[in-house]
Amino acid sequence: MRVALVPVAAVRAQGFDVRVAALRAVAHLSYAMFSGGGLGWAETAMKRGEFAVPAAPPGTQPDLTGLSVPGSRKYRPRAGSSSRAGGAGARAPIRSPFVT
């Protein structure tokens, strides 16, 4: 897996942009849409090895502070949604960072 941190300033310096929009398909589901050509340029730059994030030393544990997962105390399914995995009518709550 390749990982990179590409500054938007670097994208714009190459004549591209990164514009983001959200499409709310239904009340509980949004899709992010990108335009401006910047993501394509960033992907190509990343594959060339630019903006690479170096691998952590062996045994390093990630800092997951602030993240929550189903089953943790911070996770609260939306009212009316099911917390079951699978099954008829089961829905996982979706929280989009793109739609408030």
The helix-strand sequence is: HEEH
Count of helical segments?
2
Overall pLDDT: 79
Biggest sheet character = 2 strands, antiparallel
Low-confidence stretches: 83-89
% residues in beta strands:
15-25%
Which bin fits the share of residues in helices? Answer: 10-25%
Terminus-to-terminus distance: 31 Å
Return Rg in Å.
18 Å
Counting DSSP E segments of at least 2 residues, the number of strands comes to 2
Q: Tell the overall outline.
A: flat
| Biggest sheet strand line-up | 1-2
Q: What structural class should be given to the helix and strand makeup?
A: alpha+beta
Outline the structure in words:
This protein has 100 residues and is α+β, with helices and mostly antiparallel strands. Helices cover 16% and strands 15% of the residues. It has a domain of 40 residues. Strands 1-2 form a two-stranded antiparallel sheet. About 7% of the residues have low confidence.
